[in-house]
Amino acid sequence: MSKKILVIGSSGQIGTELVEGLRTRFGAENIVASDIKQPQVAQDGPFVMVDAMDRRGIERILDKHGITEVYLLAALLSATAEKDPAFAWKLNMESLLIVLELAREGKLKKVYWPSSIAVFGPTTPKDMTPQRTVTEPTTVYGISKLAGEGWCQYYHQRYGVDVRSLRYPGLIGWKSAPGGGTTDYAVHIFHEAIKHGAYTSFLGPKSTLPMMYMPDAIRATIDLMEAPVERIKVRTSYNLAGMSFTPEEIAAEVARHFPGFRMGYAPDQRQAYADSWPNSIDDSAARADWGWAPRYDLRAMVDDMVLNLRGGQG
Ligand code: AKB
Question: Suppose 292 and one of 44, 83, 170, 286 were both cysteines; which one would form an S-S bond, judging by CB atoms 3.0 to 4.6 Å apart?
């Protein structure tokens, strides 16, 4: 049986680019995109509306399209989740348990589910945070991701479900809008630099956070899922690192392209979430197990973002 993939939550920041990446690799007709929202970009393959908490609806799609793998991306991110913690918990957990159950019942061969650096908290070592370390998250998003990692490992160990996961840092891309996270400032800054030549960051100048350019994140995701099963040794979620920078540092890089660019700072409640997360991540397990290596540093990412947002005009 050939590979047929369902992406749940395909209209969000990661989904938009992941669907494109998967379609390039496996053919547009083999990737079914699904969400409760219309896609951010025109689709060149199948799209269906489905709620990530609708088990029946998902099962119908699996049957109709002969789906073999699910990438479950639907979730409330850190900042949005804090506005409605009970709903964030319900969405983030129920959707995962539905997909894990479908896999346990033999209806899926493989599952991808994203975790995050938000599983870490203020008691975690901040620099080069290890794969296995203290995890005492302070956000409901982090709590749900940590619990989800536990469920992934449990379904793998108890039922043999092939579920794979990455702890994404903040993700930066030009093709899609970010969806309510603490790291979104690092995307907004580009759009505001182009429109107004100025940006006011909701994180303070010295807040170092782990970040990654979207092409690296998409490559990591597909490489992890395509790695031979014996190479996957972490069944909670793999640490993944790209670059680390502060708002002050990215502002300096953006200013190289927009002379006179002005950066201001007005930290809000998101500062506390950022303060609880690591500065940098040790991803040596991902490198050793399935050959992960990032390609973009801060300068290369900023150059590519600006080039693409200006329509390839340099
Ligand atoms: C967020 O800021 O909530 C996300 C994340 C780090 O998982 N980008």
Answer: 286
Q: Probe ligand 1: pick from 77, 80, 214, 237, max atoms within 8 Å of CB?
A: 77
Q: Is 273 in the pocket of ligand 1 (CB under 6 A)?
A: no
For the chain, give me the number of helices (H) and strands (E)?
11, 14
pTM of the predicted model over 0.90: yes
Angle CA(86)–CA(89)–CA(93) in degrees, nearest 5? 150
> What digits encode the pLDDT tens for the residues 48-83?
999 999 999 999 999 999 999 999 999 999 999 999
Active-site position among 71, 141, 168, 273: 141
> What 8-state DSSP symbol labels residue 260?
T
- Are 7 and 52 contacting, i.e. CB atoms less than 8 angstroms apart? no
The ligand 1 atom at the shortest distance from the C-alpha of residue 182 is 2
Q: What atom in ligand 1 is closest to the CA of residue 81?
A: 3
CATH 3.40.50.720 location in the chain: 5-170+213-239
| Secondary structure letter of residue 261 according to DSSP | -
Instruction: Determine if ligand 1 sits within 6 Å of the CB of residue 77.
Output: yes
The DSSP output letter for 41 is S
Q: For residues 86 and 108, what is the distance between their CA atoms, to the nearest angstrom?
A: 29
Q: Return the CATH number of the domain spanning residue range 173-211+243-309.
A: 3.90.25.10
